[in-house]
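P.,

For your records, the input lines for the assembly:
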Amino acid sequence: MNSVIKGASYILAFTPEMVMQNGTTQTTEKIVNPESEYLKQLESHLRTYEQVVSYPPNQAYIGNIHPNELAQIEQPWHDKAIEGASRFGKYGEIMPEDEFICLMQICDVFDLVKLDKSFVAATKEKLEQHPLMTADIIARLKEGEDAELISKLVSEEHSEALYYNKELVGCVKRAHDVDVNLSAHVIHENLTSKATNVLSLLNLVAKNNINKEDIDYVIDCSEEACGDMNQRGGGNFAKACAEIAGFVNATGSDVRGFCAAPTHALITAASLVKAGTFKNVVVSAGGCTAKLGMNGKDHVKKGLPILEDVLGGFAVLVSANDGINPEIRLDLVGRHSVGTGSSPQAVISALVTESLDRANMKITDIDKYSAEMQNPDITKPAGAGDVPMANYKMIGALGVKRGDIEKKDLASFTVDHGMVGWAPTQGHIPSGVPYVGIARQDILDGKIKNAMIIGKGSLFLGRMTNLFDGVSFVIEANQGKTKEEGTVSEEQIKGLIAQALKNFASNLLAE
Amino acid sequence: MSLLQGKKVIIIGDRDGIPGQAIEECVKTAGAEVIFSSTECFV
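Structure tokens returned:
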């Protein structure tokens, strides 16, 4: 039996101060050109929390508007706002920076996050109003420290500063004097990833009416690495996040593969469930501070706001077939193999058509493709173009070459089988997976019958291989089969036992 | 003669467009010498 997508969550954390302090475009600029015009202008281009909440692509990400509704709003979107936009959505929420900093401390079990007393007092009241922050979670928040201690830790002890509204409100301490893998920078990066992952897990169970105790296994598929000098990248984010989220019956592990990791992880989860190893597997990931403001120079140069001002997170629950939720077709998995090659045609063939050919399906037999769902509002001004559209054009072009569609229908293919991008440029976050939750709902509502999720990864960035990578899978409406064909029913077993006893009795009588 | 014959070429490919390696193969057949090639990821 195929496993099913039982629920999904999508969250954002608005972190403008981390754009300034931790985004690599900004930290690099501070080293190589500290007096640059960009750094001087940057602050005036940051958005407010209210602007970020009402930003149309963000409302799409947390599920308050459908991508089809987003497509109806004329681009660019940075000067548009959704009327009556809410912080909370069908799939998740957009958390402000003060609450997020406290959540980082909640996720810190080594007393490395130090927060200012008065900041904690003010923010704790807000967190107590949060529907998902239960008493046991809030209890992890410490009372706080004097401001002098925080200043000293930052200026003399190599701690990573935490700012809120331009004020120093805390810091992340280094976890070792010498080991760079436990430096304040790395611990800060890992705790932000952990906190956004935990927020995704909390939203997943709350928005989908799931019992935390039912989760058997968690797979983290972010792009960070935790470990010390003897095992850099040893892990395990998944179990660490499950602990804070209260998944007491779960263990887990980390899957890595750059931006393709979420799709790799979902295929792994579906396989674990289909094999019967686990019944409920969560695939989740937190966000990445390094990518905050990644294309900021181009945005500032063009007079735009800094649009990469949020960390992203998501979680998807893969469960045993319930006869209702959309199924994951593991027989329709596509993969870019070592020998595939790097030309766009080879890549798309490997990811899209090779698996479809196995089922005698045409490119048009898939209702929606979710490849790289980056928000074009962010990428177009930076010269990277409209990434989802580029992918749809390549899939469509292959369709024309195969005779699946007419050349004149190429433009309509990108609309009918594609979508506008809505996800923040957080690497693995926009890669295929933002559509999983929406696709589940669209399939349940009968709007579409199936969708292909495609994850692509730039392995060459790690300098271990020049290869590119990608995997894909198909989800489709549940076929209503909750029992594997060829299995033996209880009635049949009773019949077999009765027959065996009858034979035994006959043998005894014969003797 | 090809436009690229005998020319030295610097290639910057795009992960979601044409990767550096694919451009490399093309320009080599046109007689160019690749002195630098990489694929960048902008997302």
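Two observations worth noting. Chain A touches chain B at residues 259, 295, 341-344, 372, 374, 379, 382-385, 387, 390-391, 425, 427, 430, 456, 458, 460-461, 466, 468 (CB under 8 Å). DSSP finds 20 helices and 13 strands in chain A.

Regards
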